[in-house]
Amino acid sequence: MAVVTSHFLLPPLCLPPPSSRTASHYSVSPKRPPIMAASSSSSSLTDPQYGGGRSRFMEFPHVSAPHRDLMVELVSAVEARLDSYLLPCTLPPDVQYYENQSGTAQATLHVRSGHDSSPIDFVLGSWIHCQLPSGGALNITSLSTYLNPSTDAPNFLIELIRSSPTSLVLILDLPPRKDLALHPDYLQTFYEDTKLESRRQLLEKIPESQPYFSSSLYIRCIVSPTAIMTRIETEAGGVERMEEILQSHVGPVAKEVLGIWLDQCAFGEREVGDSEISYLEKRDRLIRSKTIEIDLGSSLPRLFGPETAGRVLEAMRGFFK
C-alpha cells in the first residue's frame, strides 16, 4: 500500500501522485528447525476459516492476470516456507478490508505475526484500488516481510504501482538493517555475493524502463544500493507489451529476489549479540514509525477519510512499533 506500502505498507513506499519484544525475547537456537511446506490443514492465506478479508486479499481483483498471478505466486512462496513460523491474521474485519464512503477506493490489509521462537517479526500484504478523478484507476499491490532482532539480515519488499494499464512503478528490494558503510561484510554477504545488482541491471535493460525516484529523500536513503526502483511506460507497445514485461521480465526477477531472501536472510545463520539486538530494535522501530508518518499518515486519510484511515493506522502501529 505504501507501506507504500511503501513497504514500505507495506502500503506503498511512496504513492505516486494520482498521474513488542525485549532483547531477552530473541533467543534463537543456533540451528533453527526446518520450515515445512504448508499443508492442506495449515493456516494458509486462502483458508476459508479466516474469513472474507483474507480471501479478498488473495483475489487482487483490479489488476491484470500477469500482475495478479505474480502476487499470488510470491505470497504462496512466502507461506509455503514460513507458514509454520507464522500466527493467523488477527486484524479486525474492517481493517482487513476497507473502503471510502463513496466506494471509489477499496483496500485490503493482511498481517501475520511470527511465533516468538521464529526469526520472523511479521509478514504484511496489501492492495489498494482507487478510481482517479481524471478517469482510470490507481492500483497498488505490495508484499513485505520483516525480521525480528534475533537476526540482522535484510527485510524483503515488493510493490507494484499501476496508474494505468500501460504504466508501472516497481519497487523491489532487500532493505538493509545495518549501516553498509560501517559493515562492508554485510554488504558483501547480502548484496554482492547474491548478485542482486545483476537482477537490477536486467530490468534496467528493458527499453521502456527508466529510473524511478521517490519524492521522499528519507525513503531513498533506507533502501539498498541494489534496490530496483523503476518506472516502465508502454504506451507505444500498448497493454500487451506491459503484460509481456510483467510475465517475462518482472516476474522472474521478483521470484529470484524473494528466493534469495528466503534462503539467505530468513534462514541464514546470523550471530547477533545483546548490544546488536538493542541497536536493531531501535533502528527497526525508528524506520517503521517514520515510514508510517511519511507514507501512510498523509495518503490514507486522503484516500479513505480520517475515520477509516485512523482505524487502519492504529492497527498497523501495533505491528510497526
Shape: globular
What is the distance, rounded to the nearest whole angstrom, between the alpha carbons of the first and last residues? Answer: 18 Å
Q: What percentage of amino acids are in beta strands?
A: 15-25%
Strand order of the largest sheet: 2-3-4-5-6-7-9-8
Can you give the mean pLDDT? 85
Outline of this structure?
The protein is of the alpha+beta class. The chain has nine helices and nine strands. It is globular, with a radius of gyration of 18 Å.
Task: List the main descriptive attributes of the protein structure presented here.
321 residues, single chain, 9 strands, alpha+beta
Structural commentary:
This protein is an alpha+beta fold and 321 residues long. It is built from nine helices and nine strands. It has helices at 52-59, 65-82, 93-96, 184-192, 196-204, 217-222, 238-266, 274-304, 306-320, and strands at 2-3, 97-99, 105-113, 120-131, 137-147, 156-164, 167-173, 209-211, 228-233. It has an eight-stranded antiparallel sheet. α5 runs antiparallel to α7 (238-266) and α8 packs antiparallel against α9. The protein is globular. The two termini are 18 Å apart.
